[in-house]
Amino acid sequence: MCGPTSRFDKAAAHEYAGKYDEALELYKQSLAAEIKDHGHGYHDNPDVSTLQNNIARVFQKQGKYEAALALYTKSLDISIKVQGPQHPSVAATYNNMAVVYELQGKFDRALALHIQSLEIDIESHGPEHASVALHSCSAA
């Protein structure tokens, strides 16, 4: 993310300060720049996936759950395509989606995604890794 990095950093700062509208604007500008830079190849770009994940997270914080899930799904598709279905970024996105389903009261769906995330983390990192412990708590 060469060009949009400072924009990305500013977006993250706004997000963590609770300034979600400002964060969204900057994340969306960063995403547009990444898509423009990569043309039709943006579907194979992990930076696009990361930005979609970040925008989804802001939507989630704003209570826009359907918009968040739609972007998490797009991000997931890219991550699976580019990095493979057992990559830690795939696990992280499953976990993010599970949190949205929890917030919606869809606990069965959330649990299934937490378990998928946990299984990937165990396969990727081994059973003693910190992310495995974290996701074990989420799936409990």
In short:
By secondary structure, this protein is mainly α. The chain contains seven helices and no strands. 79% of the residues lie in helices and 0% in strands.
Structure description:
The protein has 140 residues and is mainly alpha-helical. The chain folds into two domains: 1-63, Methane Monooxygenase Hydroxylase, Chain G, domain 1 (Up-down Bundle), CATH 1.20.58; 84-140. The chain contains seven helices and no strands. It has helices at residues 5-16, 20-38, 46-61, 65-83, 88-103, 107-125, 130-139. Helix 2 (20-38) runs antiparallel to helix 3 (46-61), helix 5 (88-103) runs antiparallel to helix 6 (107-125) and helix 6 packs antiparallel against helix 7 (130-139). The model has no long low-confidence stretch (mean pLDDT 88).
Set out the fold topology:
Layout lengths: L4 H12 L3 H19 L7 H16 L3 H19 L4 H16 L3 H19 L4 H10 L1
**Helicity range:** over 70%
Order of helices and strands: HHHHHHH
Number of strands: 0
Report the β-strand fraction as a percent range. under 5%
Helix vs. strand class: mainly alpha
Largest β sheet strand count, sense and barrel closure: none
Task: Work out the helix count.
Answer: 7
**CATH class of the largest domain, anyone?**
Mainly Alpha
What gap, in angstroms, lies between the N and C termini? 36 Å
Q: Average pLDDT, to the nearest integer? A: 88
CATH architecture of the largest domain: Up-down Bundle
List low-confidence stretches. Answer: none
- CATH structural fold name of the largest domain: Methane Monooxygenase Hydroxylase, Chain G, domain 1
Q: Write down the overall geometry.
A: globular
Radius of gyration: 15 Å
The total tally of domains equals: 2
